[in-house]
Every structure is written in structure tokens, then in C-alpha cells.
Amino acid sequence: MSYKKWIRSGSVALLSAAFLFVTACGGGNSSNNNTSTDTTSTSTATNATNESASTEKDPIKIGVLASMTGALESYGKQTTRGFELGLDYATQGTREVDGRPIQFIVEDTETKSDVAVQKATKLLENDKVDFLVGSSSSADTLAVLPLAEEYKKPIIVEPAVADSITGESWNKYVFRTARNSSQDAVAGAASIAKQGTKIATFAPDSAFGRDGIKAFKATAEKLGATIVDEEYADATATDFTANIQKIIQAKPDYLFVVWAGANSPWKQIHDMKVQDQGIKISTGAPDIAALKTMNDLVGMEGFTVYYYELPQNDVNKWLVEEHKKRFNGEVPDLFTPGGMSAAIAIVEAIKKTNGDTDADKLIAAMEGMTFDTPKGQMKFRPEDHQALQTLYAIKLEKKDGYDYPVPVLVREMSMDETAPPIMNKK
């Protein structure tokens, strides 16, 4: 990848430079499925300074696990785009820290846990990476976590959200820039749950789906709501008729949906006239491709992890502008800032250790570390290494010039407000 000339404005570089409920990435204002990082490729800076530095010190190697094909392909491609942009932002384009050039290797997990383990083992044993990053699927990530502990290498989890990753399956090498299901649940429940509210839920039958609903249910019930029906469908299903019929029969006030992947249920929910039964739909605002299927949900109040127009900070401004420059005018999508945040976290940690990639030193540097991201400041909570972060309460509105309902900010929910419970029993 050729590197663009940096422009400075004050102390911030202004070149131009994550979800729960989303489908594959589409066109229009969304990212397409092209990426500057190919599967199983190694990327290094190509400028002369980096080439010279690489002869002096050993490179820092990062292995990125992502769904570059399959149902979560858009997640993987958004994340890897963001990761590459994050390296450039955090190093001001040099792709090096303390004179050590940074290399990253992307491996396609195919959204299969056994493949994820194989690829992670290859990265750890053959490529001798200093960090793992990923992956797109919670199941893939949970399968890989024991390897981080076995090989004593930090893993930055992005964008997988299952609570168990920083809960019962956690080990000290696990850090997560992605939000977890409980953070989403706080935001989702706060938007609809109150005393006497009846809620049905719908999610894929997976670690991602069940953890998401478990966390949502706990939060909603604390606010006085009643869960009248829980529906789970096979994660690869395309026909949700039976599930939706049961939801209608339960007569809830709201249907709260947790979904991920290209096979979203939105069209069938509309075709079966769920809203005509007096049932309001609530969910997290997904990526732009999925928003294009949600025109019938204009007016819905929910939340989102990220939409490129919401955060007002210099890092996000850089990301939006640089993404447009590199990708034919396209804007960053839901998981792009997460990939960027993971890269920034790694670079900031290595700066703190003065270029030392010893795992124990990196862990000490990252515990409690705060760092700037496109979503504002994040902080790795010392107790479980979960990144505390801002989420956004939104309303879907129709706007001229957009072919999808746009998430409009109702309010930002601070990292303290959305902090999830500590579940790893450390």
C-alpha cells in the first residue's frame, strides 16, 4: 500500500484515517467488500525510513484473525481496513515503534472455530507473532483464547462480543477493544424497558446470540420489564416463520432483536406484519447494508456502537476523511473504528514498554490504559481487560440523500454508564 503525505493541523494529523445486529457490507455510502489487506498477506510500511529501520531491529509481528469469507465477511473486511488505518494513525505513517517496523498478517477464519484454531496456531508457531487480534465471530474467538494463554501472547479481541470472552473463558492475556454483550444490553434495555413492559427477544442460537439475550434480559428485568418469549434460530437459517409466529402469539409490547450476519430477519419480520400486531421493534442500529433493509423501521429508538456521523472528535474526523481517500469516497462502517481502536491500543502499549514485546510487560502497560479512538477515549478495565467505551442512543430517521434510515443521536452514553459487570471472577 502506498502511503499518503501527512498534513498537520495543530497537534492532530488530519489526513483522513462495531455489531451486534448487522448484515453484510453494501454499496452506497457503505464500504464495499474490497480491502487493502488480503487474506494471509503481510503488510509493512513501504517508505524508505521503514526499510532502513527494518535492518536494525526485529519487526513487531501481529496476527489478525478475521472472517474474510463467509457469513461475517463484511465484519472481517471492515475490521482489517480499520486495523491498517489505525496503525498508520498511531505511528503517523511510519508503521514502526521505537525503531521496530510493524508487520501484520491476516488469516481468514472462514467463521469456523476449527479453522480459527488452525490459523491461530500457524500465526503463533510459524510466524512467531507478538500479538493476536480478532476475531469476527465469538465462537471463533472463544476457541482461540486458550492458545493465547498457552503461547503467552496477548490477544486483542475485536469485534467479537460474547460476555464469556471477558467472563468465564477469560485469561490474563485477553484484552478487548470491542464492547461486550452486556454493554450492548445496558444501552438496548435503557431504550425500551420500564416497569410493566412486555418484551420478546429474537437472536441466533450461538454464543453471540445467547450471551446477548442473557445480558439484555438481566438488565431489562432490573428495570421492571418482563420477557414473555425468547426465540433462537440457527445462525445460518434463512426462514424464521416459526420463530416470528411464536413472537406474535406472545403479544409483547416490544420485540428486541440481536442479530449478526448476512441472513438478517428484517424482511421476514416486515412481511409477516409484526408491527401491524402492535409490536414495536427495537434493536441496535447495524451497518449501512443492513440499514438499507430497515426502511420500515423509521422512527425506531434504539442504540448503536458506531455510525460515522455521530462521534465528534479528531480521531474520527481523521478516520472518515482518510477512509474516503483510500476507498473511493466510501465512509467507515460499523466495525471499521473497532479495528482502528485495536491497532491504536497495540501501538500505545508498545510505546509504554519502549518497544519491548514481552507479554508480562505489555499486560502491565495495558491494564488500566486509556487511549484515544474514533469513539472517544477507551480504557482497559484492570479487572477483566474489557474496554470501557461510549455507546450511542439513537433514533432512525429518514433524510434526503440517503437510501436508508439514518441513526440520529439522541445522546451519548458514557463509558461509566455502559460499564458491564465484571464476570471473570478474577
TrEMBL record:
The keyword Nucleotidyltransferase does not apply. Residues 59-398 form the Leucine-binding protein domain. Residues 1-24 form the signal peptide. PROSITE patterns: PROKAR_LIPOPROTEIN. It comes from the Bacteria. Residues 30-53 have a biased composition (Low complexity). It holds the Pfam family Peripla_BP_6. CDD domains: PBP1_SBP-like. Keywords: Amino-acid transport, Signal, Transport. SUPFAM superfamilies: Periplasmic binding protein-like I (SSF53822). The keyword Cytoplasm does not apply. Residues 30-56 are annotated as: Disordered. Belongs to the leucine-binding protein family. This is Branched-chain amino acid transport system substrate-binding protein.
